[in-house]
Amino acid sequence: MEVNEHDFNYEQRRVDWTISEILRREIILTDSVESVRGEAQDIRSNFWKDVTVNVSESDDVIETEVSIRQQELLLQERELNYKHAEKQLKAMKKLKSSPYFARIDIQEGQNESETIYIGTASFMDQNDEFLIYDWRAPISSVYYDGALGEVEYLTPDGTQIVEVSLKRQFIIKDAQIEAMFDTTETIGDEMLQDILGNQSNSQMKTIVSTIQQEQNKIIRDTTSQLLFVQGAAGSGKTSAILQRIAYLLYHFRNGLDSNQVVIFSPNKLFNHYISNVLPELGEKNMIQTTFLDFAQARIHGLRVESLFEQFENKENKQRQELLNLKENAIFYRSLDRYAGYLEKGGMIFKDIKFKQEILFTKKKVAEIFYSFPSHYTMPQRFTYTTEKLLDELNRLVRKESKKEWVEELLESLSEEEYKGMSGNQKFESFKEEQTFLAMKVVRKQFKHVRKSINQRRYYHLKAQYADFLKVVPKLIKLDSYGISLTEWQSEQSSVISKLNKKQIMMEDSVPYLYLKDITLGKEMMRTIKFVFIDEIQDYSALQITYLKSLFPNARFTMLGDLNQLIFKNKKQEDSLFDSIAPLFDPERIQKIELTKTYRSTADITNFTKGILVDSDTIEAFERKGDLPKVVIDSSYPAMIDSVVEAVAGKQRESNLTAIIGKTIEDCEKAYELLKTRIDSTLISKENQKLTEGIIVLPSYLAKGLEFDTVVVLDASNHNYHLESERTLLYTICSRAMHHLVITSNGPKSTLFDHVPSELYQIK
Q1: What are phi and psi for residue 124, nearest 5 degrees?
Q2: Can you give the pTM of this predicted structure?
Q3: Pairing of strands 357-360, 226-231
């Protein structure tokens, strides 16, 4: 509902007054920051001058320690004050352009009516009266969740009930109200259309003013052990999750640090895209990683197959049954059974060598390993085996120190080198000095052997995994999974060949890591309190089970869209939630579905819905635009001409245009012809940073991103004809916000046959 001129003028005066207060606070904070910074620098510079140092008596030592501790505490206090003041100053700088985006008028019981203004950070005047409430504050949930009338909201003291008499929304830029209106609903569509109608950006925008009621449930959930969010493309899943992280850091601010929050993103390009959201909301960034990077960090000495290789490997399509088996819980259980056999024998070790001479044979290592009581776990046996080997090594060092080569080495030392090795050590005799130096020489020579033993390199993990694969036919009835013994043996040979080349496929990474954890012991990350997994549909139940075991104290938030499957088939993932639910307390599982999509115009959303066979649950947001265009050409050069024409026609309207190919090979081929005609950037394995303008990228790197204009590269029937590629084509097309152009070298894909002809233009 439009606001009258009188109200508009009042609200602008209120904005002006609020900003004047913010500017006043900014001056005070600037002085405070400079003052506290100066104090901290002075304390650092004069640290030892102000410390009483006396170590002659035990009481003096204690006094010295107390003096040092006092100075450390003083320095800590000043640095904390500095950081706090600097954080407040950053918040003020953001607020002075757009102090708030909403107002609610509420009344609690018989108390007087109260006006609440909501922004990205709290702000109080010099009398400690709130002029702006942080969007994460409990009272702010009334704005997102309630309509006019009686509304409940949760506070630290329990549930409160208020009467809401006004809900008003603003768009304020450069201290001027550009738009405002009153609404009875959660978020007015008019305001949302205005904000979402803006151009996209190479970094994700922080639009807390457009949080919808369902998104608010996701953001403010503080009790679920598993929060599982299924959402259509463009439904605001990722935005809600990032705002959820900001909310949790605010809600648990006395006990939660951003270093205790980790998010698994689909790729590095997406990491760059979301990197600015939390800093814009006044929080430090959480730990960002991809599953590939996470697995690679834990698998030493092997290169894990990349996202590019995983998608581009055409053999994967012929190996689907094998891939499905390796990602099935039965594979995990077979590893447990295999480990049970290893308790009695079968562990594979390496010889421990020094200068090509065997110090301990693998047979000797095995004898030591299995000499410990049977009730010891394998990680415990490794601990005691390592200790025993180090003891044996020390005996060998003493023996080696008496050998002729050591004496010759000592005689060859210069006087300076000799003194350097002796240091300030005093010796009773020449023989004692020689013994000391001989031991020092040999210990140095054996240093890498000691390190190798400490790091358990005597365990042949690669060979152990290869042995497990040989045993699998005895542990699993392969034909129940559509796999013959010959197919499995071929797979086994392929994996072993890759291991010998120091490579491992993505689907083998979790079983390999699980075997490592069973035998060597698990390195759990107990300090992590919240784990977020984006694009959950591309994970297997096995991967999630593994992550759950590594983060035992964490609550999990998982989000995705089964309609955007790229690396798996839909049938395989339909039961994902059912597979992982038993890992969590059933009383603390929350499943939320977001069906309304806000990213694209209604025209684009209705077109992309037509690509899917079952899309009744997806609801378009009524923002009108151009119909998608399908351009069919008879040759590849003609199609490239159409691509150039499409992007040239939209350059003025688009900050960010994406030409999306199926594979990196498709993109590289097109880019070679496009780069001399249009200013564009190829996103590849080496370059995964989003830039404004025109980019060319493969389909699997476009996940989670949005663009003003999307040009689909060669959506011909030759390129997209498999039913399993339907969700891939949907994912590509649903990246578009305002304009969608589909090019085709020859007849268009039959996957478009379900789309009603009135929903697109054909050329």
Answers
A1: -115, 150
A2: 0.83
A3: unpaired
Token pair recorded at residue 218: 């996701």
pLDDT at residue 50 tops 70: no
DSSP 3-state of 288: strand
Q: Which two tokens stand for residue 7?
A: 């109200």
Query: What angle do the packed helices 58-95 and 5-45 form, to 10 degrees?
Result: 160
Q: How many CB atoms lie within 10 A of CB 532?
A: 25
Q: Which region, left, alpha or beta, applies to residue 229 given φ > 0 means left and ψ of -120 to 50 means alpha?
A: beta
What pLDDT, on a 0 to 100 scale, did the predictor assign at position 405? 77
Taking only the tens place, the pLDDT of each residue in 457-506 is: 999 999 999 999 999 999 999 999 999 999 999 999 999 999 999 999 98
- C-alpha to C-alpha distances, 9 to 3, 19, 174, 194, 463, nearest whole angstrom: 10, 15, 16, 21, 77
The closest alpha carbon to 529, from 155, 339, 259, belongs to 259
Q: How many residues does the chain have?
A: 763
> 634-639, long-range: CB within 8 Å, 24+ apart, which pairs?
634/746, 635/745, 636/714, 636/745, 637/673, 638/745, 639/714, 639/743, 639/744, 639/745
From CA 402, how far away is CA 579, in angstroms rounded? 63
Q: At what angle do helices 362-369 and 378-400 cross, to 10 degrees?
A: 130
Q: How is residue 663 written in tokens? A: 């594979």
Question: What one-character DSSP code corresponds to residue 2?
Answer: B
Question: Which residues, 6 or more positions from 543, have their beta carbon under 8 angstroms from its beta carbon?
Answer: 291, 327, 510
Contact 296, 502 (CB under 8 A): no
Among 214, 222, 306, 311, residue whose Cα is nearest residue 598: 214
User: What whole-number distance in Å separates Cα of residue 310 and Cα of residue 216?
Assistant: 36
**H-run or E-run covering 475:** helix 461-475
Average pLDDT over residues 231-256: 88
Q: Measuring CA to CA, how many Å separate 499 from each of 465, 525, 582? A: 9, 27, 34
Both structure tokens of 224: 């679920």
- Residue 406 Cα distances to 116, 323, 387, 493, angstroms: 82, 55, 26, 46
What span, in angstroms and rounded, lies between the C-alpha atoms of 629 and 297? 44
Burial (Cβ within 10 Å: 0-12, 13-18, ≥19) of residue 309 = middle
Residue given tokens 């115009």 in the structure block: 601
Q: Calculate helix-pair angle for 329-342, 541-550, nearest 10 degrees.
A: 50
Residues 6+ apart with CB under 8 A from 51: 64, 67, 68, 71
Angle at CA of residue 7, ends 104 and 17, nearest 5° = 75
Token duo for residue 279: 């800093």
**CB 189, CB 620: distance < 8 Å:** no
Which three-class secondary structure string do you get for 16-46? HHHHHHHHHHHHHHHHHHHHHHHHHHHHHHC
- Alpha-carbon gap, residue 600 to 604, rounded angstroms: 6
Number of Cβ atoms within 10 Å of the Cβ of 435 = 15
